[in-house]
Amino acid sequence: MDRDAGAAERLILALDTPTVADARTLVGRLDGAVSFYKIGLELALAGGLDLAGELIAAGRRVFLDLKFLDIGNTVERAVAQAADLGVTCLTVHGHDTKTLQAAVRGRGASQTRLLAVTVLTSLDGADLAEQGIRDGLTPGDLVTHRAGLAQARGFDGVIASGQEAGRLRAVVGGDFLIVTPGIRLADAESDDQVRVVTPERAIADGADYLVVGRPITAAADPAAAAERFIAAIGAGLAHRGLTSRAAS
Ligand code: C5P
């Protein structure tokens, strides 16, 4: 993953399917359009880790989204296992230095990129207060604080909503990856995502990679839908003055 990637390389398809067979069907339909897949908890618990190995062996990239959070020893060893599998990136809850440093140790010399989850977008100020996080701290403040912590401890980037991307980019500078879910084309339904942003807007504001699920997976023609997202990413890159080169 790099900040100079072309438009097609920046699209990560969320394989949120209940079975590996369903995921394989999608991968087959998207062959040639999509080369980067996110595997989360649902599919991982249904054989998705074997599928991850197959995709990697076939030259695809895999984002393992299991959002690790545990004692340091466990996080370190889990990250080392994922790095051995050859995943391109994975998520860790970025709450504290001990967890972040354990993940960095587990990654070792591998190329696996570490992405911090700062504050889940499903949580609002009242949820944070319930956790004891008070003093008027907003989710946005905590996102910024935790992103800075992750960057200082050697992480490669964060997961952030499109609405946070611009503010975060200003804080973390140019070299830190911002990976953004909750993306919808301008004319689309938002499903259960509440704070949706278009691909052009997210990329123009500083997101590097976009995670897209249902707008592609539930489309009548998923490959055509993926191409629309890639074109929109290209338009966002043009806003940033970056050219969009072909996927490699
Ligand atoms: O289908 P849709 O495009 O909404 O899928 C978005 C993907 O991004 C899902 O896999 C979801 O779990 C993930 N995600 C998210 N919001 C976050 C973090 C991850 O929607 N804050």
Describe the structure.
It is a single chain. The protein has 248 residues and is α/β, with parallel strands linked by helices. Helix content is 45%, strand content 15%. It has helices spanning 20-29, 41-57, 72-85, 97-107, 125-130, 139-152, 162-172, 199-204, 214-217, 222-239, and strands at 11-14, 36-40, 61-68, 89-93, 113-117, 157-159, 177-180, 209-212. The chain has an eight-stranded parallel β-barrel with strand order 1-2-3-4-5-6-7-8, surrounded by six helices. Helix 3 links the parallel strand 3 (61-68) and strand 4. The longest helix is centred in the C-terminal third of the chain and has 18 residues, at 222-239. The protein starts with 10 loop residues before the first strand and ends in a 9-residue tail after the last helix. It binds cytidine-5'-monophosphate. Cytidine-5'-monophosphate (C5P) binds next to strand 8 and helix 9.
